[in-house]
Design a protein that fits this description.
By secondary structure, the protein is α/β, with parallel strands linked by helices. The protein has helices at residues 8-20, 31-41, 57-64, 85-88, 105-128, 158-169, 177-185, 194-207, and strands at 2-4, 26-28, 46-49, 75-79, 97-100, 133-135, 138-141, 146-149, 152-154, 175-176, 214-217, 221-224. α6 (158-169) crosses α7. The chain binds calcium ion.
Length: 229
């Protein structure tokens, strides 16, 4: 786990608690070394503070998500500003999850474990049908985490991929926000309802013309069209 945080006290608390939980933290105090370490070590998860000297967390995240070798790594953003949340889980950034400061170490460890479980679980779900899933012009390779629409590859984050796979596997059936939070995020996300909406919005943006296949069912949730054309 790469921990990117400029405040030594917080960095130590996080690293200590991750170690206690049986994980292996490596830390970075600024964005530039974080980018280097991410490429060198290809960690399973990056915990990224928003406010950093030099390149800030948002920029680090943007750069990571543009690099082929590291874009698949889930990013958990830390922020002290609640009003930054929309931008963090917002459209083009690609952070998979966030925690607002102050948080308890226990909360952090739970969140980290659930993200790690989520990224392996995407492969588990896939294990049920490890062959290519074809829906209309869309092909999904559950094992390789690849999606193509009309032959065009899509660049999805782990969370977006899992969201799409869940909707496609349950196509024709409405999924409530609660169900999606449970299946895709793997825990109760109380008060984080807009997480689902912003991820759906981001997924639709990436789907291009196929965005219509993800339908909003007013007052209930979302549904992937049964027979997309
Ligand atoms: Ca900071």
């Amino acid at each position: 786990i790469l921990v990117v945080e400029d405040e030594p006290d917080i960095r130590e608390v996080i690293s200590y608690n991750l170690t206690q939980a049986g994980l292996e933290p490596v830390s970075s105090a600024d964005g530039e070394t974080a980018l280097q370490k991410a490429e060198e070590l290809v960690p399973d998860l990056i915990i990224l503070d928003l406010m950093l000297p030099g390149i800030d967390g948002l920029e680090v995240c943007r750069i990571l998500k543009q690099k082929e070798s590291v874009r698949h790594i889930p990013v958990l953003m830390l922020t002290a500003k609640a009003d930054e949340v929309d931008r963090i889980v917002g459209l083009e950034l690609g952070a998979d999850d966030y925690l607002t400061k102050p948080f308890s170490p226990r909360e952090l460890v739970l969140r980290v474990k659930s993200i790690l479980k989520r990224s392996t679980a995407a492969t588990d779900i896939a294990g049920q049908a490890s062959s290519l899933i074809n829906v209309g012009e869309m092909s999904i390779d559950p094992d390789g985490h690849h999606v193509w629409v009309g032959g065009r590859p899509l660049q999805l984050t782990v969370t977006e991929f899992r969201l799409l796979l869940t909707l496609v596997q349950r196509r024709g059936r409405v999924q409530s926000r609660d169900e999606l939070l449970n299946v895709v995020w793997g825990y109760e996300h109380n008060g984080y309802d807009r997480t689902v909406d912003t991820h759906v919005r981001r997924l639709r943006d990436k789907l291009g013309p196929a965005h219509e296949w993800v339908e909003t069912v007013r007052g209930v949730g979302y549904r992937f069209r049964r027979d997309p054309e």
